[in-house]
């Protein structure tokens, strides 16, 4: 079927608009990348750098030689790995229990979980809870209060509802317990769901910022995002009286900030391509049967 001129015009305008929007979205990322690899002396002269004439990794060397940055990187890595594992365990276990139709009080529990997605308690009640539990200035204060999400539990429950009941009945006949069914049958079949929610949890833990400001007082226990904010404030408030002397002692603050942003962003960007095929399958979790 021959394409009409109006359709060609529409596709041309559509593709052109999408290309412009893509360039607008990608330009800040490119600028951050370019400035982070710009030679310090060149940046002090040019300032606005779109393509460096001299590439340098001086900013990255300075960052990784900073013990506080390495420690913050380790804290964020701990949150993203341990926190994601625990969150997936709690979320999948709760969703599996709610998906069992023989559970007594199933509907009231689902209603209470649903209420947590509709009403936000604010800042004070969670802080009082963390304080009374003795978790102030503890890394676990960044994990336990956000260990699971009611919305994720309900979505994963919808995925578990799509698993045939005959599998559970056959496992029961073979003498498998409920824990064995969840661990040996349900979880392997739920890999797309686990990957999708695992990516959500990992990004949330990696980007932990506001809760760390509330609960963490020790600078050694601060995650990477808080350290980036401190670096931004310090570099903005520090006057560079002698630019040449500053460049000799350390790279300019702007190149340091851009390098820190790149280092904080790359780990999540590297994880996504390996999870993409599972993530595409899990994106429609709970949309058909809930």
UniProtKB/TrEMBL annotation:
Query: Per UniProt, which keywords does this protein have?
Result: Cell membrane, Membrane, Transmembrane, Transmembrane helix, Transport
Organism taxonomic ancestry = Bacteria, Bacillati, Bacillota, Bacilli, Bacillales
Q: Which residues cross the membrane?
A: 12-33, 75-98, 110-129, 135-155, 193-216, 258-275
- Positions of the ABC transmembrane type-1 domain: 73-275
Q: What is this protein called?
A: Carbohydrate ABC transporter permease
Cellular location of this protein? Cell membrane
Record family assignment: Belongs to the binding-protein-dependent transport system permease family.
Topology relative to the membrane: Multi-pass membrane protein
Question: Which InterPro entries does the UniProt entry name for this protein?
Answer: MetI-like, MetI-like_sf
CDD domains, per database record: TM_PBP2
In terms of PANTHER family, this protein maps to: ABC TRANSPORTER PERMEASE PROTEIN MG189-RELATED-RELATED, POLYGALACTURONAN_RHAMNOGALACTURONAN TRANSPORT SYSTEM PERMEASE PROTEIN YTCP
Which SUPFAM superfamilies is this protein grouped with? MetI-like (SSF161098)
The main place the protein resides is membrane
């Amino acid at each position: 079927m021959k394409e009409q001129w109006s359709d060609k015009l529409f596709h041309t305008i559509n593709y052109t608009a999408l290309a412009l929007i893509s360039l607008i979205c990608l330009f800040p990322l490119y600028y951050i990348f370019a400035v982070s690899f710009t030679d310090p002396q060149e940046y002090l002269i040019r300032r606005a750098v779109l393509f460096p004439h001299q590439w340098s990794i001086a900013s990255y060397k300075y960052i990784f030689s900073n013990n506080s940055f390495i420690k913050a990187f380790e804290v964020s890595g701990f949150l993203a790995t341990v926190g994601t594992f625990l969150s997936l365990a709690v979320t999948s276990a709760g969703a599996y229990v709610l998906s069992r139709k023989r559970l007594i009080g199933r509907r009231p529990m689902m209603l209470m979980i649903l209420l947590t997605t509709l009403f936000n308690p604010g800042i004070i009640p969670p802080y009082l809870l963390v304080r009374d539990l003795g978790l102030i200035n503890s890394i676990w204060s960044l994990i336990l209060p956000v260990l699971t999400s009611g919305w994720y539990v309900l979505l994963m429950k919808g995925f578990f509802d799509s698993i045939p009941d005959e599998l559970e009945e056959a496992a029961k006949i073979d003498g498998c317990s409920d824990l064995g069914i969840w661990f040996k049958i349900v979880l392997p079949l739920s890999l797309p769901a686990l990957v999708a929610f695992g990516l959500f949890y990992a990004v949330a833990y990696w980007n932990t910022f506001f809760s760390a400001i509330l609960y963490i007082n020790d600078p050694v226990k601060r995650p990477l995002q808080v350290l980036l904010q401190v670096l931004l404030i310090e570099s903005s408030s520090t006057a560079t009286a002698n630019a040449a002397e500053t460049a000799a002692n350390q790279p300019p603050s702007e190149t340091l900030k851009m390098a820190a942003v790149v280092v904080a962003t790359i780990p999540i960007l590297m994880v996504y391509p390996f999870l993409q095929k599972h993530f595409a399958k899990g994106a429609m979790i709970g949309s058909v049967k809930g």
